[in-house]
Design a protein that fits this description.
Layout lengths: L1 E6 L4 H11 L4 E6 L9 H11 L3 E4 L6 H6 L1 H24 L3 E5 L47 H16 L3 E5 L3 E2 L12 H11 L2 E5 L7 E2 H13 L5 E4 L2 E2 L4 H12 L4 E5 L24 E3 H11 L2
Parallel strand pairs: 1-2, 1-3, 3-4, 4-5, 5-9, 6-8, 7-11, 10-12
Length: 310
């Protein structure tokens, strides 16, 4: 039987990880949240986890107040401790006890300006070839793309990745994007974008939504299942992009949400500067998965989620 430690167990993702691993008799699950362990305390991390001696450590704890982190120096320091330094402490103890370590990062480690791919064989002389006819490049960032965050939150997530790579050995760095699912059990946890927009749509006849910042959504139960799949398949250690299929803007996602939920609220597309925010967002942060079987469309996952909350 494998002993699995899940940290951040009361969060949106953490609670799904607990469900997934507890449903399998091959795993003995220990679920800790912030009340059980302070992952920013290296001594505490070393002592508590070494004593437990799990075979797998999964860190679903994170700081995710993107705008607050940008404008408040104290919050930025907090984000650096939780997102940047703590993953290194966890990776170090995982290496010491020979455990597999899983750390979740973010699409916000990227700049938002992906390279535009050319069709195979392109020599740069478009006047003399037809390779571009019918060619639709996939814009985004694969697992080998070079991170270049444009805001402080993204910088703390990249710090975490680098800390894991420096201190760890048997690790998986998983990058999801725009996670949604059942609300977290943890106090003061953020609601997902879809939950927020459901509430807004039921109260207003018209809503303005940013028609920019193209990326993918990740359904928390799908991410939890894929995490277990990666571990059980003994995938090579390293970086993985785990998102549901279907890149879209915030506006496009809300149109789909209201259609499924049968909400008649008018959705108006607007530019990003319509809602001034302290932290800059990547214009494109679509994560391209080249190392795993693709996950289902976010639309299918969203439909399942809406049924689950009726």
């Amino acid at each position: 039987m494998q002993k699995v430690l899940i940290i951040g167990a009361k969060g949106m993702l953490g609670q799904e990880l607990v469900n997934v691993f507890k449903s399998d008799k091959d795993y003995k699950v220990t679920a800790w949240d912030f009340d059980k362990i302070d992952i920013s305390d290296e001594v505490q991390v070393k002592e508590k986890i070494s004593k437990l001696s799990p075979n797998v450590i999964i860190n679903a704890a994170a700081y995710n107040a993107v705008d607050l982190c940008e404008k408040d120096k104290a919050e930025f320091e907090k984000a650096k401790k939780i997102n940047g330094k703590a993953p290194g402490y966890l990776a170090k103890v995982a290496k010491k006890i020979d455990a597999i370590f899983v750390q979740y990062s973010s699409d916000y480690v990227f700049s938002g300006l992906p390279e535009i791919p050319e069709p195979l064989g392109c020599g740069g002389s478009c006047s003399s070839c037809s390779l571009h006819e019918g060619f639709s490049p996939q814009l985004g960032f694969d697992e080998n793309a070079i991170p270049d965050p444009v805001q402080k939150y993204g910088k703390t997530k990249l710090m975490g990745e680098e800390a894991v790579q420096k201190n760890g050995e048997k690790y998986y760095i998983i990058r999801p994007s725009k996670i949604f699912g059942k609300p977290a059990k943890a106090k003061n946890a953020k609601k997902s974008f879809f939950d927020v927009m459901l509430a807004v749509g039921k109260k207003n006849a018209e809503v303005n939504v940013v028609d920019e910042e193209t990326s993918c959504f990740t359904y928390a139960p799908d991410l939890a299942n894929k995490t277990r799949e990666i571990i059980e398949a003994n995938k090579p250690f390293g970086i993985y992009h785990v998102v549901n299929e279907g890149a879209c803007t915030w506006y496009e996602a809300v149109v789909e949400l209201y259609r499924m939920a049968k909400i008649k609220t008018k959705v108006v597309p607007v530019a990003g500067d319509e809602f001034p925010r302290p932290a800059q967002r990547p214009y494109v942060s679509t994560l391209i998965n080249t190392r795993l079987n693709p996950m289902r469309s976010y639309k299918i996952a969203l439909r399942e989620y809406l049924k689950s909350i009726k």
